[in-house]
C-alpha cells in the first residue's frame, strides 16, 4: 500500500504564503519553504515542476487575500475613492510584504494592477460608478489622478515616510477628490 502524502499542494501554498507575508516573496525559496513546511525539497518538486508555478499560486492567494481584506473594511465616506484610498493605504501599512508582492513587483503573473485592485470585490468599479453618480463626466480620468496620490501615499507608508492618521488621510483624499472633480 502506497504511503499517504502528508505534504499537500494546499499545505505548500499556505506555508509559502505565510513565508511571503512574513519575509517577502523574494524569500520564498525551495529550501526556506521546505524548512518552514518541515520537509525536504522533494515534495515541493513532486508537486511543482519549478518554483514559478508555486510562486504563481502564492500570488493568486495574495490577490484573494487582498480582496478579503478589502471586503472586511466598512466604507463611510460619501466622496468616491476616499474609502478605496484608506483601504489601500491600510493594507500597505499592515501587510507591507504582501503589498510589495502584489503592487510593487515586476512579476504579476499576467495580472494588471487594476485587476488585482478591483479583484473579487469590484471595488474600483463601484467607486467609478459612485463618481459618475456624483456628476463626474470622466471617472476613469478622475481615478487615474486619485490613484497617483493613493499609490504614492501607500508606498510612503511602507518606507516609513507617511505617518498621517486615518482622519488626516481621509481629509487629504477628500480635498484631492474635490480638486480633481
Please tally the β strands and state the result.
Answer: 0
Percentage of residues in strands: under 5%
Estimate nothing, just give the exact number of structural domains.
1
**Name given to the CATH homologous superfamily:** Tetracycline Repressor, domain 2
Q: Given the C-alpha coordinates, what overall shape results?
A: elongated
CATH class: Mainly Alpha
| CATH architecture level-2 label | Orthogonal Bundle
Structural class estimated from helices and strands: mainly alpha
Write structural notes for this entry:
- This protein has 181 residues and is mainly alpha-helical.
- It has a single domain, classed as Orthogonal Bundle (Tetracycline Repressor, domain 2).
- Helices cover 70% and strands 0% of the residues.
- The N and C termini lie far apart (69 Å).
- The model has no long low-confidence stretch (mean pLDDT 92).
Amino acid at each position: 500500500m502506497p504511503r499517504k502524502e502528508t505534504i499537500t499542494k494546499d499545505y505548500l501554498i499556505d506555508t509559502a504564503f505565510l513565508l511571503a507575508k512574513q519575509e517577502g516573496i523574494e524569500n520564498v525559496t525551495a529550501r526556506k519553504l521546505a524548512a518552514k513546511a518541515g520537509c525536504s525539497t522533494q515534495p515541493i518538486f513532486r508537486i511543482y515542476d519549478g518554483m514559478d508555478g508555486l510562486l504563481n499560486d502564492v500570488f493568486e492567494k495574495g490577490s484573494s487575500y487582498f480582496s478579503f481584506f478589502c471586503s472586511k473594511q466598512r466604507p463611510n465616506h460619501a466622496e468616491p475613492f476616499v474609502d478605496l484610498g484608506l483601504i489601500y493605504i491600510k493594507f500597505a501599512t499592515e501587510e507591507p510584504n504582501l503589498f510589495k508582492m502584489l503592487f510593487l513587483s515586476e512579476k504579476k503573473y499576467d495580472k494588471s494592477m487594476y485587476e488585482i485592485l478591483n479583484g473579487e470585490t469590484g471595488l474600483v468599479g463601484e467607486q467609478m460608478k459612485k463618481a459618475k453618480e456624483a456628476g463626474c463626466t470622466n471617472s476613469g480620468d478622475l481615478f487615474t489622478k486619485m490613484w497617483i496620490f493613493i499609490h504614492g501615499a501607500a508606498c510612503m507608508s511602507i518606507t516609513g515616510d507617511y505617518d498621517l492618521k486615518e482622519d488626516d488621510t481621509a481629509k487629504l483624499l477628500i480635498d484631492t477628490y474635490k480638486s480633481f472633480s
